[in-house]
């Protein structure tokens, strides 16, 4: 396996990035903590602001790091810049424009897994590189690609379903490529990207809705409108009345006609002993 850059070139690009913008780690960390505070306290209608924060972080990493500094080491960095710009566009479109992203702490393991990835991005990842001898300004900080992807996958675990697939594409692609490159270059702290990708895929698969096959689905009652129900009631009542009338006429015995009393002359002729 050959990579378009080696470890010294990677850390040299990080050093140039910090030399050009020494204030960037502080500002980006402030944005990250503002995002976390927003997850805990913002109302649903303000969730678009959180999506804009993520879009700004991804656009910054794509332009300020990949396009302006890593391209000095390899032309492949232009493809990385496009990937991060695409991730920024996905967050802006799906979250800020369409309002389809809602961040909230879920019940279960996703809350703790997301919190662990966020802590790794903000604290553990740069600390591990510093302990391995990558001194400032070559120490990766929040805002460089690996730390940003760890943070992003952590907060994506807090997305409430249904979440659009587009926002997962760029973080998962970089987690796979960055984790494989870390294993090849010996950047052991960046292997956390593979763990983050596995957690994200597990969360994504469990959040898919369960589809019930028609053969095993319970029978459904047909829905009727109020007009149809009223018409059915009237028709039923009329049919019942007709049936009742028909049944009554079928079982009712005929009324006997009264017998006419014969005249007196006929009674005398029919009964000779009558004194009349």
How does this model look, in words?
The protein is mostly helical and 276 residues long. The protein has ten helices and no strands. The longest helix has 26 residues, at 226-251. The protein starts with 6 loop residues before the first helix and ends in a 6-residue tail after the last helix. Mean pLDDT is 81; it is low at 209-251 and 264-276.
What's the end-to-end separation, in Å?
143 Å
Number of helices: 10
Number of strands: 0
**What is the string of helix and strand elements?**
HHHHHHHHHH
Instruction: Based on Cα principal axes, name the global outline.
Output: elongated
Characterize the main sheet. Answer: none
Structural class: mainly alpha
Mean of pLDDT:
81
Rg calculated over all Cα atoms: 41 Å
Low-confidence stretches: 209-251, 264-276
Helix content: 55-70%
Strand percentage: under 5%
What is the secondary structure topology, with strand pairs?
Blueprint: H1 7-20, H2 24-41, H3 47-67, H4 77-97, H5 109-131, H6 145-156, H7 166-185, H8 192-206, H9 226-251, H10 264-270
Helix pairs in contact: 2-3, 3-4, 4-7, 5-6, 5-8, 6-7, 6-8, 7-8
């Amino acid at each position: 396996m050959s990579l378009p850059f080696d470890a010294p070139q990677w850390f040299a690009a990080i050093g140039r990035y910090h030399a050009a913008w020494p204030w960037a780690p502080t500002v980006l960390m402030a944005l990250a903590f503002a995002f976390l505070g927003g997850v805990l306290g913002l109302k649903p209608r303000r969730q678009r602001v959180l999506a804009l924060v993520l879009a700004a972080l991804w656009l910054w990493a794509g332009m300020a790091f990949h396009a302006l500094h890593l391209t000095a080491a390899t032309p492949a960095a232009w493809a990385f810049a496009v990937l991060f710009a695409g991730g920024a566009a996905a967050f802006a479109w799906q979250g800020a424009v369409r309002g389809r992203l809602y961040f909230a702490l879920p019940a279960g393991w996703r809350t703790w897994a997301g919190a662990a990835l966020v802590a790794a991005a903000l604290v553990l990842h740069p600390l591990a590189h510093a302990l391995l001898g990558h001194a400032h300004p070559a120490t990766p900080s929040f805002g460089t690609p690996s730390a940003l992807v760890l943070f992003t996958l952590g907060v994506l675990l807090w997305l409430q379903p249904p979440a659009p697939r587009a926002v997962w594409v760029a973080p998962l692609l970089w987690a796979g490529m960055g984790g494989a490159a870390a294993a090849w270059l010996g950047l052991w702290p960046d292997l956390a990207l593979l763990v983050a990708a596995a957690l994200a895929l597990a969360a994504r698969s469990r959040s898919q809705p369960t589809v019930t096959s028609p053969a095993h689905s319970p029978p459904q009652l047909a829905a009727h409108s109020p007009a149809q129900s009223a018409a059915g009631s009237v028709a039923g009542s009329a049919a019942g009345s007709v049936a009742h009338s028909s049944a009554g006429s079928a079982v009712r015995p005929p009324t006997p006609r009264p017998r006419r009393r014969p005249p007196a002359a006929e009674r005398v002729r029919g009964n000779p002993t009558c004194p009349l």
